[in-house]
Amino acid sequence: MKNVLKWIGIVLGTLIGIILIVGVTMFALGTARMNKTYDFPPSNIELPTDQASLEFGKHRVETLCAGCHGADLSGIEKWFNAGPLGTIDSANLTSGEGGFGREAQSTEDYVRAIRHGIDPEGKSLFMPAVTSTSHLSDEDLGAIIAYLKTIPPVDHTTNGKNFKPLALILYTAGVIAPLPVEVVSHETHVSAPERTASVEYGEYLVNTNDCHVCHGPDLAGGPFPDPTITKISPNLTPGGELAGWTEEQFINTIRTGVTPGGHNLDPEFMPWKDYRLFYDEELQAIWLYLQSLPKLPQWTK
Ligand code: HEC
Ligand code: HEC
User: How much is the pTM?
Assistant: First the structure.
């Protein structure tokens, strides 16, 4: 009996030892991957100074960035709070104390963050939206950066990403999605279709405004990007509910958050309060693009 217990002890002890070694190794690998530095060729984007471009930059920031960076763009603490995995604050984009506008040395520092997903030192950022913002054209990016340089400074020091060891282990294991810098295309120059109500411009708007992040790669619906939320995003192709809508009903849904069927879209999950600021022609373009998609069944787990 004593011998059996001794052997059980040895086996258990060895197992715990192996688990610890594997855990520590995965943690170390995750940390090294997280701290890796990157460099990309400069974009040499020139910042516009005319009023129309600044106005367009403001419009882009209000529809795309403010939802995560706050109405005054001073950053949101614990923007992502996943208990045992850690927390992430979104950045203060102003030139106040603790703001990116004070830290950034050049236009390229902005481009590195928004197009490539890295900080001024070249280290990876955890800003999932980079999968969308990396598609912004040189012209749009220039307008956005020019506008950001005019916003009022707000003093607010945020803490960026604070991953706990478990998050780094799961990251190495591939359970947590790769960082944006590891997946986006890193083009040096990006152009956009003309700003009109066309299918092409609609596709550009959908690609740059996070629709794919929630509604899936083919827009047939998908899991919520935050793994702690079980909500599933609906199908936006003509295979879903939108098949029976008119353009006017689509625009009205985004403007009011109420679907033609009377369903209230929860702004916690579907950021229609940001998207309701889209110009008519932008919503028309998005509608035309969604209508042009192949008819697909709703994505399920
Ligand atoms: C889905 C949410 C989300 C959206 C949308 C978003 N951001 Fe961010 N952003 C974040 C988070 C979170 C961080 C902090 C990332 C980190 O510290 O790793 C961040 C960080 C940044 C940084 C800081 C880089 C640094 O080195 O500290 C800049 C600049 C930035 N965002 C600009 C923008 C701009 C401009 C837009 C709109 C075009 C935008 N972001 C849209 C969530 C978002
Ligand atoms: C952060 C996740 C997220 C993003 C980003 C997002 N959506 Fe949604 N969307 C949802 C969820 C979740 C719902 C369902 C909301 C509910 O039922 O309360 C939804 C609902 C909708 C609906 C109603 C569909 C129906 O069948 O009732 C439309 C239309 C829509 N989204 C369009 C868009 C477009 C266009 C974009 C990009 C400009 C976009 N969404 C970006 C999560 C998102």
Answer: 0.95
